[in-house]
């Protein structure tokens, strides 16, 4: 028999499956608490690999993500290598550029390099003596009854590992999650959107950024949209979002140029026709998936975080930020429940599911809204209205993106508040309209206009119109 004292003092072993952004950060969180952490990543160590394949080159890092980095002492290091974006720059079809600030001076988001961020996080995790990194370990399967995991190596060998807790951070197509799907009362939904995305590089011109660097550049064209984020090497990464069926229609270099001439003419000289054609055909368009599930845990043995728990479409710039916030939320619950997994895991599901589902819905809603009727005029108009109301009533009307991007307001609370604000705004508009009609009628009744004067002025108007026509 094991003595209860030795059992108490033995530090538990936590397996973090996936060494992407959320997995590497999570390894830091668990290591900081003193757990023995084993990180398993299917790829080779990206810090050694020469070619890094993977999704999107840069990401928008905002408040939630920064707070999580701060918890493990990494905020400054990452922020130093990020490029602040204080505003969006809206590119109209005629080439006009209009900046719309994100907020006040201190309210900006950061463009960060995914590969660099991942590398820094892995290095940070490794500096804890109680972490062990296992690259080239692809989780093949695990047994939800026994907790035994099977990993496949590149040389064809297999390894079996058992730990006290499995933390699934293995992305949108999570292998950890597969075991959840076999269980009763597990809710799961996944939706592929009709759009794909493609990345194009805008190189520096004469050694300088081809466009203003401290902006999130946006070309809103309803079903087509392009977004560009600045990189430290003075390039921009442009991401083109477009329905797959339209990607498929463009099959020759000439058609690429024709398409850009029609929808993004200002970018052709900036990207360069050759680069544009080369980048366009280099890789096929990538798919985007939204995944929601519930619960996020199995007993006291396994928990999902990041894209493994909630892949969201990128139309709020929150996927990584939400995944990073998962780590803080879990950490706070670990404090509350004294690291007792049997209490922590259900509480994490209870608290976090509504918020992750809320951001998944918001991102999907924004995708549908942008695709349906967001051209540059509409985008500018909506953001102006948001910002003006916020300026005059900063305590009452807070734009949704502000709550999402610059605060840690729980996502589901932000949505609730947004609905409430919309009601207030609509009532305000209705009241002003009713007031105008009533007020106008009252004034008309009190001071009835002299009918003769009206007719005379009508005659004058007619004369003027005739004069205009004969000019
Ligand atoms: P991933 O980054 O997918 O990492 C999963 C890791 O697990 C990988 O390293 C993978 O190799 C490993 N793995 C997979 N399977 C196994 C296995 N069986 N065994 C072992 N390891 C395994 N988010 C933002 O916050 N801001 C943005 O601006 C933003 N822009 C985006 C733009 C696009 C076009 C896209 C597609 C996404 C964007 N996101 C953004 C979302 C962001 O990329 C993800 O939310 C984030 O990468 C999730 O991190 P993760 O660690 O959970 O998953
Ligand atoms: C998409 C792809 C502008 C990086 C949503 C805003 C995004 C990002 C917006 C990608 C948009 C859309 C917001 C931020 C950010 C805006 C936001 C979207 C970063 C509502 C690399 N979105 N993104 N909203 O407000 O809150 O500027 O690929 F075009 S950052 Cl779609 Cl704040």
Automatic annotation (TrEMBL):
<dbReference type="GO" id="GO:0043420">
    <property type="term" value="P:anthranilate metabolic process"/>
</dbReference>
<keyword id="KW-0274">FAD</keyword>
<dbReference type="GO" id="GO:0070189">
    <property type="term" value="P:kynurenine metabolic process"/>
</dbReference>
<dbReference type="Pfam" id="PF01494">
    <property type="entry name" value="FAD_binding_3"/>
</dbReference>
<feature type="transmembrane region" description="Helical">
    <location>
        <begin position="428"/>
        <end position="445"/>
    </location>
</feature>
<comment type="function">
    <text>Catalyzes the hydroxylation of L-kynurenine (L-Kyn) to form 3-hydroxy-L-kynurenine (L-3OHKyn). Required for synthesis of quinolinic acid, a neurotoxic NMDA receptor antagonist and potential endogenous inhibitor of NMDA receptor signaling in axonal targeting, synaptogenesis and apoptosis during brain development. Quinolinic acid may also affect NMDA receptor signaling in pancreatic beta cells, osteoblasts, myocardial cells, and the gastrointestinal tract.</text>
</comment>
<keyword id="KW-0662">Pyridine nucleotide biosynthesis</keyword>
<keyword id="KW-0472">Membrane</keyword>
<dbReference type="GO" id="GO:0005741">
    <property type="term" value="C:mitochondrial outer membrane"/>
</dbReference>
<dbReference type="InterPro" id="IPR027545">
    <property type="entry name" value="Kynurenine_monooxygenase"/>
</dbReference>
<dbReference type="GO" id="GO:0019805">
    <property type="term" value="P:quinolinate biosynthetic process"/>
</dbReference>
<comment type="pathway">
    <text>Cofactor biosynthesis; NAD(+) biosynthesis; quinolinate from L-kynurenine: step 1/3.</text>
</comment>
<feature type="transmembrane region" description="Helical">
    <location>
        <begin position="388"/>
        <end position="407"/>
    </location>
</feature>
<keyword id="KW-0812">Transmembrane</keyword>
<keyword id="KW-1133">Transmembrane helix</keyword>
<keyword id="KW-0560">Oxidoreductase</keyword>
<dbReference type="InterPro" id="IPR036188">
    <property type="entry name" value="FAD/NAD-bd_sf"/>
</dbReference>
<dbReference type="InterPro" id="IPR002938">
    <property type="entry name" value="FAD-bd"/>
</dbReference>
<dbReference type="GO" id="GO:0004502">
    <property type="term" value="F:kynurenine 3-monooxygenase activity"/>
</dbReference>
<keyword id="KW-0496">Mitochondrion</keyword>
<dbReference type="GO" id="GO:0071949">
    <property type="term" value="F:FAD binding"/>
</dbReference>
<keyword id="KW-1000">Mitochondrion outer membrane</keyword>
<keyword id="KW-0521">NADP</keyword>
<protein>
    <recommendedName>
        <fullName>Kynurenine 3-monooxygenase</fullName>
        <ecNumber>1.14.13.9</ecNumber>
    </recommendedName>
</protein>
<dbReference type="GO" id="GO:0034354">
    <property type="term" value="P:'de novo' NAD+ biosynthetic process from L-tryptophan"/>
</dbReference>
<comment type="similarity">
    <text>Belongs to the aromatic-ring hydroxylase family. KMO subfamily.</text>
</comment>
<dbReference type="GO" id="GO:0006569">
    <property type="term" value="P:L-tryptophan catabolic process"/>
</dbReference>
<keyword id="KW-0503">Monooxygenase</keyword>
<keyword id="KW-0285">Flavoprotein</keyword>
<feature type="domain" description="FAD-binding">
    <location>
        <begin position="14"/>
        <end position="327"/>
    </location>
</feature>
């Amino acid at each position: 028999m094991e003595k209860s004292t030795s059992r108490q003092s033995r530090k538990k072993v936590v397996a973090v499956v996936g060494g992407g952004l959320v997995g590497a950060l999570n390894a830091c969180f668990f290591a900081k608490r003193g757990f023995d952490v084993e990180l398993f990543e299917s790829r080779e160590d990206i810090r050694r690999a020469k070619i890094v394949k993977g999704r999107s080159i840069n990401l928008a890092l905002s408040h939630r993500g920064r707070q999580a980095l701060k918890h493990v002492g990494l905020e400054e290091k990452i922020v130093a290598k990020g490029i602040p974006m204080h505003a969006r720059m809206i590119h109209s079809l005629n080439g006009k550029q209009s900046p719309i600030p994100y907020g006040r001076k201190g309210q900006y988001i950061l463009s960060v390099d995914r590969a660099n961020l991942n590398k820094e996080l892995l290095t940070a995790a490794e500096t804890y003596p109680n972490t062990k990194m296992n690259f080239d370990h692809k989780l093949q399967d695990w047994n939800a009854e026994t907790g035994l995991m099977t990993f496949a190596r590149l040389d064809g060998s297999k390894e079996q590992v058992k730990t006290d807790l499995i933390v699934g951070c293995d992305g949108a197509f999570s292998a950890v999650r597969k075991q959840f799907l076999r269980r009763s009362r597990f809710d799961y939904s996944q939706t592929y959107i009709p759009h794909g995305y493609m990345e194009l590089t805008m190189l520096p011109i004469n050694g300088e950024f081809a466009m203003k660097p401290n902006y999130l550049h946006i070309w809103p064209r309803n079903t087509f949209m392009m977004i560009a984020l600045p990189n430290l090497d003075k390039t921009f990464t442009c991401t083109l979002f477009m329905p797959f069926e339209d990607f498929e229609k463009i099959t020759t270099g000439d058609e690429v140029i024709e398409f850009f001439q029609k929808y993004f003419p200002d970018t052709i000289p900036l990207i360069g026709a050759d680069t544009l054609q080369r980048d366009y055909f280099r890789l096929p368009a990538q798919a985007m998936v939204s995944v929601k599930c519930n619960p996020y845990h199995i007993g006291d043995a396994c928990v999902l975080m990041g894209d493994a728990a909630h892949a969201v479409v990128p139309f709020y710039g929150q996927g990584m930020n939400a995944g990073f916030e998962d780590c803080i939320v879990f950490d706070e619950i670990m404090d509350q429940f004294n690291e007792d997994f049997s209490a922590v895991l259900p509480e994490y599901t209870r608290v976090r599911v509504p918020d992750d589902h809320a951001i998944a819905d918001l991102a999907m809603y924004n995708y549908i809204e942008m695709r349906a009727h967001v051209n540059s005029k509409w985008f500018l108009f909506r953001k102006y209205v948001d910002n003006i109301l916020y300026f005059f009533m900063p305590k009452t009307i807070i734009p949704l993106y502000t709550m999402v991007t610059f605060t840690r307001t729980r996502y589901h609370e932000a949505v609730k508040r947004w609905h409430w604000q919309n009601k207030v705004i609509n009532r305000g508009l209705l009241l002003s309209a009713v007031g105008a009609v009533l007020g106008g009628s009252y004034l008309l009744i009190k001071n009835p206009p002299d009918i003769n004067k009206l007719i005379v002025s009508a005659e004058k108007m007619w004369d003027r119109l005739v004069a205009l026509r004969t000019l």
